[in-house]
Design goal:
heterodimer; A: 107 residues; mainly beta; three-stranded antiparallel sheet; 10 strands; 0% helix; globular; B: 123 residues; seven-stranded mixed sheet; four-stranded antiparallel sheet; 11 strands
Chain lengths: 107, 123
């Protein structure tokens, strides 16, 4: 089973700053099957990025994904107040797995 | 408009069997390439994928819970079901169903989610 490790666990930044969230896989994975989700408190997760780099429908262009092999990154170029929530990476091939999450908090 | 909605009991006793229903709207599990997954999230913890069912009847389970999970579908009612046997307090979680299409043109990941249902296991 592929294990996804997200870092940092908590990221403290200010609105307007750039956020870089990391997801590392325990073995090389196809970027085709790597996604990122945003989860606000009390809500279901929302797909942000699929295929490591493609934005899902309706996702603002300040969200971008990159990476390959074992290392993937979600970047939020200019943080808005509503972006300070929890983010998960996911590998969704044969036995889907999620990372443990990164909480983005206001500094 | 694609929607999914979970339903089932909010409270179950230890050792009981949990049965959840996911009602689909705006898409069909008879469509080639379509799948639905169940995911759960214990309070304050991370997401955990449980099971997946495909348009062709293919079923896939989380290895560690395989013996306790059963996923099934009723395409005439556009519903997907999840049963979890021998429930324990550690199974207390919000249970979500999500649309999980096979990767293709402009598709990938779990693109639509239900609102989730909190299931508490307690005597």
């Amino acid at each position: 089973e592929i294990v996804l490790t997200q870092s940092p666990g908590t990221l403290s930044l200010s609105p307007g700053e750039r956020a870089t969230l990391s997801c590392r896989a325990s073995q090389s994975v196809s970027s085709t099957y790597l996604g990122w989700y945003q989860q606000k408190l009390g809500q279901a997760p929302r797909l942000l990025i699929y295929g490591a780099t493609s934005r899902a429908a309706g996702i603002p262009d300040r969200f971008s994904g990159s990476g390959s092999g074992t290392d993937f990154t979600l970047t939020i170029s200019r943080l808005e107040p509503e972006d300070f929530v929890v983010y998960y990476c996911q590998h969704y091939y044969s036995s889907p797995t999620f990372g443990q999450g990164t909480k983005l908090e206001i500094k | 408009q694609v929607t999914l909605k979970e339903s089932g009991p909010a409270l179950v006793k230890p050792t009981q069997t949990l049965t959840l229903t996911c009602t689909l709207s705006g898409f069909s599990l008879t469509t080639s390439g379509m799948r639905v997954s169940w995911i759960r999230q214990p309070p304050g913890k991370a997401l955990e994928w449980l099971a997946r069912i495909a348009w062709d009847g293919g079923k896939f389970y989380r290895t560690s819970l395989r013996t306790r999970l059963t996923i099934s579908k009723d395409t005439s009612k556009n519903q997907v079901f999840l049963t979890v046997t021998n429930m324990d307090p550690v199974d207390t979680a919000t249970y979500y169903c999500a649309r999980d299409p096979v990767v293709g043109s402009n598709k990938g990941g779990f693109d639509y989610w239900g609102q989730g249902i909190l299931v508490t296991v307690s005597s």
